[in-house]
Write a structure and sequence with these properties.
Beta-lactamase; 341 residues; five-stranded antiparallel sheet; 2 domains; 11 strands; two-stranded antiparallel sheet
């Protein structure tokens, strides 16, 4: 006898309800054998259903294909490979700061990574930052204890002077200290003219500049004066290269980090206290140095190194209206927005 579809549905529903009541009765009667069997079947059902769902998703999304490819040829699927994080890591979202300097660069010394730049390749006058190169060449020429005599010419140079008296003798190492700490132009002059003559000395400065990669630089004098003996220019990028080379020399690193120095002639008749022109040595902890410079043509120039392990940051600003403010703005921005391991 044929049963209609409606009656079949009703019978199935009635059978389902009966089984539900029966199961509830078994559970409420605490028939643990029955309960454990039901629990096991539910777990098997859920695991099977989850696996089928994952399999379906993996096939249609291509994920399983990618897993197979990554396992057999890892280089084909780089997203599953180990990711090496490179430090310093940019973590902040602040926009780059506004500064008055015409040109600037911030570099992580350990990696050489540029953290900030503004016209870093623009040729500009270096002012007294050139004395870092003067010191490098002087150290090639002289022993630190070598005696040098102050000429009349050197007592009349333009720019900052320590007031060296003509005819007095000084140790070459002390003149280097006075030049780098107090930016003494008369000390730079004595170093340049005492053995090989100023022209030959400047030639050696330019040769050394090329040797250390300062390809956009030309020096015309050892003091940093504008428009002396022709063109006199460099770039922020080149000054960074010069600074790294300079502070790798122990005598120069010592000098640029000293706050004060007593410059004394060999006979003791001249004695002067020289104060470092880099005020960050007093104001900013972890300051290493390096060198200031100011002329009418160059504006304010500063090469600065900040060392707080693992940070070792160089900042160069050129053509600035306020070199210390500009440098502090850049230093604070870098420290807020970059993370070191």
């Amino acid at each position: 006898m044929d049963i209609s579809i409606t009656r079949k549905v009703a019978l199935y529903l009635l059978e389902f309800v009966v089984k539900v009541f029966w199961a509830v009765d078994k559970i409420l009667s605490f028939e643990w054998k029955y309960i454990s069997g039901i629990f096991f079947k539910c777990v098997v059902f859920l695991l099977s259903f989850s696996f089928l769902g994952f399999l379906t998703y993996g096939i249609f999304s291509g994920y399983i294909h990618d897993l197979i490819v990554a396992y057999t040829t890892p280089e084909y699927f780089p997203s599953l490979q180990t990711v090496n994080v490179s430090y310093p890591l940019l973590v902040g979202t602040e926009p780059e700061p506004e500064i008055t300097a015409l040109s600037a660069i911030v570099v992580d010394r350990k990696t050489g990574e540029v953290l900030f730049e503004k016209n870093p390749s623009e040729p500009l006058p270096p002012a007294s930052t050139v004395k870092l190169m003067t010191a490098l060449v002087a150290l090639d020429i002289y022993d630190l204890d070598e005696e040098l005599i102050v000429t009349e010419k050197c007592t009349e140079v333009e720019g900052s002077r320590v007031g060296l008296p003509p005819g007095e003798k000084f140790k070459a190492g002390d003149l280097i200290m006075g030049m780098l700490i107090g930016s003494a132009g008369d000390s730079a002059c004595v170093l340049a003219v005492s053995k090989i003559g100023e022209d030959e000395f400047v030639k050696k400065m330019n040769e050394k500049a090329l040797a250390i990669g300062m390809s956009s630089t030309h020096f015309s004098n050892p003091i940093g004066l504008d428009n002396i003996n022709g063109g006199h220019y460099t770039t922020a990028s080149d000054l960074y290269r010069l600074a790294v080379r300079a502070v790798s020399v122990p005598k120069i690193k010592e000098a640029v980090g000293e706050k004060t120095f007593i410059l004394e002639s060999l006979d003791g008749s001249f004695r002067s206290s020289v104060v470092n022109t880099n005020k960050f040595l007093w104001d900013v902890p972890n300051t290493v140095g390096v060198k200031t410079g100011t002329t009418q043509g160059a504006g304010e120039v500063l090469i600065y190194e900040y060392l707080e392990e693992p940070k070792d940051t160089f900042i160069v600003v050129m053509g600035s209206r306020d070199r210390f403010k500009d440098t502090k703005i850049l230093l604070d921005w870098v420290n807020r927005n970059y993370h070191w391991k």
